[in-house]
Amino acid sequence: MGMPGMPGNGWQVMASYRRDRSVTNAKLKPGTVRRIAGYARPYVRELVLFLLLNALAAAIVVAGPLLLKAIIDHGVLPRRSDVVIWLALAVAGLALVEAMLSLAQRWYSARIGEGLIYDLRTQVFDHVQRMPVAFFMRAQTGSLTSRLNTDVIGAQRALTTTLQSVVSNVISLALVLGAMFWLSWQVTVIALVLLPIFIVPAKWVGRRLQRISREQMQLDAEMSSLMTERFNVAGAMLAKLYGRPEDESRMFAERAGRVRDIGVVSAMYGRVFFVALTLVAALATAMVYGVGGVLVVGGGFQLGTLVALAALLTRMYGPLTALSNVQVDVMTALVSFDRVFEVLDLEPMIAERPDAVPLRRADDRRAPAVEFDRVGFRYPSAEEVSLASLESIARTDTAPGRQVLRDVTFTARPGELVALVGPSGAGKTTITHLVARLYDVTEGAVRLDGQDVRDVTLQSLRDTVGVVPQDPHLFHDSIRENMRYARPDATDEEIVEALRSAQIWDLVEAMPDGLDTVVGERGYRLSGGEKQRLAIARLLLKAPSVVVLDEATAHLDSESEAAVQRALRTALAGRTSLVIAHRLSTIREADQILVVDDGRIVERGRHEELLLAGGLYADLYRTQFARQESGSDDGRRPAPLAAE
C-alpha cells in the first residue's frame, strides 16, 4: 500500500509517475472503448470473478485493523484470554483467506491478461502478414515488433493491472475512510491535513521522472540499436571490414555510460518519491498517535481504537496517491490499445476480392500464358501503405509515386521464356512483381490464361507463380525446413530430388548433418551460389507453372555460376518464364526479348532480330554482352547486364 511493510503498491505508484503524462491529452479515435469491450467480451466471466476477488481483498484491508481493535478492547484490556484466542484465530483465518484470494487473483489476472495478449498478437501478426511488400519496404521492423510486444502488453494491462488498481484502490479507500470516520472523524481529518504536503512535491518529482524516463528510453533504444546493427551477420561483417574494434568499443562504452548515469539519476528521483511517501505517512502516524494518545489518556476513546486508526492510516495513503494518477494509467492503457488498432485498421492494398475464384487453367497439361494489357503502374505513396509511426524517419514523400510503367503490353505464350533487358531503373523488376501480384496495376490488367490476377484467389495465384529473387532469403533453420516452406507435406525423397535437380544435392549430402544442416541467419553459412541453388530447389519442389526469375549469376564465381545455370535450365523447362537477364546465354535461349526503357517496352523480338534492328538492344549488347562472348574463351569473368 505504499507504506513500510507493504512496498508493492508504493513502487506501482512510483512507476506510474514515470509514464509520459502527455498521454492524458491524447485524442482517442471514436469507438476505441467499444472495441476494447469487444476484446474483453470472451473474458466477461473471468473479469467479474476477478473484480469480486479484488473487492473481497479490499474488504480484508479494513477487517484486519478492526479485529486488532477488538482484540485490545474486548480481550486484552478486560483480560479475557478466550476472546483473545478466538480473535487471534480469526486474524489467522483472515490471513489464510487473504493468501488464497491473492492466488486466485493472480490466476484470473494471468488467464485474462495472457489470453488477451494471445488474441491481440495473433490478430496483429496475421494482419501484418497480409500487408503488401510496399508496407514492409517502408515500415521499420523494430516499430512493428514494438506494436506486437510493448503496445500489446500495455493494452493487456488495461484489463488487468489498471482495472485491478482502480477497483481495489477505490474500494479500499472508501472502506478505509469510512472505518476511520466511524472510529473518530476528528483524528481522521487531522491525518488528512498532511496529504497535500506529499501530493505537491510528488507531482514535481513525477514531472522530473517523466522527462528522465523519456530520455532514458531513448538512450536505451540507441544502445539497443547499436547492438542490433553490429550483431547481425551483415552488420558484423561490415564493421569488421570497415570499422576499428577500438572505436566500436569506445562508441558503445560512451552510450552505455550515458545509460548508466541517467539510471543513477532516475533511481535517486524514485527514491526521493518513496522516501517522501514514507516520511509523510510516518508523520501522519505520529500525529494520530499523539492526538489519539491524548484522547485515550483523557478517556475520549479506547486504546484499541487508537491502534486501529494508526493501522488504517497506513492503508490510506497508497490508494490515495495511486488514484491521484489514475488518469495517466487509464489513458496509457487506452493509447496502447489505440496504437494496436492503428495497425489493424490499416487496410492491405493487395486484398482478395469477395467473389474471387481459383485460377482456372485452359489446359492442365501446359503452362498458362502471361499477358500484360496496356499496363501502367506507379508505386503507392506513404499514406497508402503504412503509418508514419512505423517508419524510421520523418516522411518527406507524401505525394503519389511517379509513374514507373507506361502502356506495357506483351504476351508470354505457354512454355515460353521471355527475357527482360534494359538499363538500371527501367522497370524490369516492377514488371515481374506485377505477375506475382506483389503490387496491383494502376492501369490495364495482368492476366494468366485470360484471367485477371485481381479476380483470382491469392492462394491459387501463389500456387501457380513461383519467384526466385536476386537475393533469396533463407530462414535460420535446417535445409529440410527451408525446403518444406514451399511444400509442408513434402517427403525427404521429394526434397532430395529437388536438390538434385538444382545441382546442390551432392553438397548437402556431404555436409555432416545433411538435410538437418542449419543454414544460419538469412543463409549466411552458405555461399551466394549455394543459396541461389537452394532457392531454385525450393522453387522446383513447389513446382509452379509460371516462373519469375531475377537471374542472380552476376556476382558468382565460375563454378557456382555454371551450376546455377544448369539448375535454371531444369527450373525453366516446360514453364512460362519471365527472366531479368544478366547473361548472354539466357538472352540467346529466350523465345522473346523485351527491351525496357523508362517504363516502356521499346523493342521486342529474338536476339538476332534485335541486333539487326540497331536500336537500344544493339547498344546494350555492344557495351555489356559482347564482352561476355569474348570473355567466354579466355576465362575472364563476364560482365552482367545492369539490373534494378
Please tell me about this protein's structure:
By secondary structure, this protein is α/β, with parallel strands linked by helices. The chain has two domains: 8-344, Up-down Bundle (ABC transporter transmembrane region fold), CATH 1.20.1560; 370-387 and 400-631, Rossmann fold, CATH 3.40.50.300. It has 25 helices and ten strands. It has helices spanning 8-18, 32-40, 44-76, 81-129, 133-138, 141-159, 161-183, 185-193, 195-231, 233-242, 245-297, 303-314, 317-324, 326-344, 382-385, 428-435, 458-464, 479-484, 492-501, 505-510, 528-542, 558-572, 584-589, 607-613, 616-631; strands at 370-378, 403-412, 417-421, 443-448, 451-452, 465-468, 546-550, 576-580, 592-597, 600-605. The strands form two sheets. It has a six-stranded mixed sheet, sandwiched between helices. It has a four-stranded antiparallel sheet with strand order 2-1-4-5, with helices on one face. α1 runs parallel beside α13 (317-324). The protein is elongated, with a radius of gyration of 35 Å. The two termini are 63 Å apart.
In a nutshell, what does this entry contain?
With 644 residues, this protein is an alpha/beta fold.
Largest sheet: 6 strands, mixed
Proportion of strand residues:
5-15%
What is the CATH third-level topology name of the largest domain? ABC transporter transmembrane region fold
Give the CATH superfamily of the largest domain.
Answer: ABC transporter type 1, transmembrane domain
Number of helices: 25
Proportion in helices: 55-70%
Question: Order of strands across the biggest sheet?
Answer: 6-7-8-3-9-10
Taking pLDDT < 50 over at least 5 consecutive residues as the criterion, the unreliable ranges are 1-25, 632-644
Q: How would you state the average pLDDT, rounded?
A: 78
CATH class of the largest domain: Mainly Alpha
Number of domains: 2
Distance between the termini: 63 Å
Radius of gyration: 35 Å
Q: Which architecture of the largest domain does the CATH hierarchy give at level 2?
A: Up-down Bundle
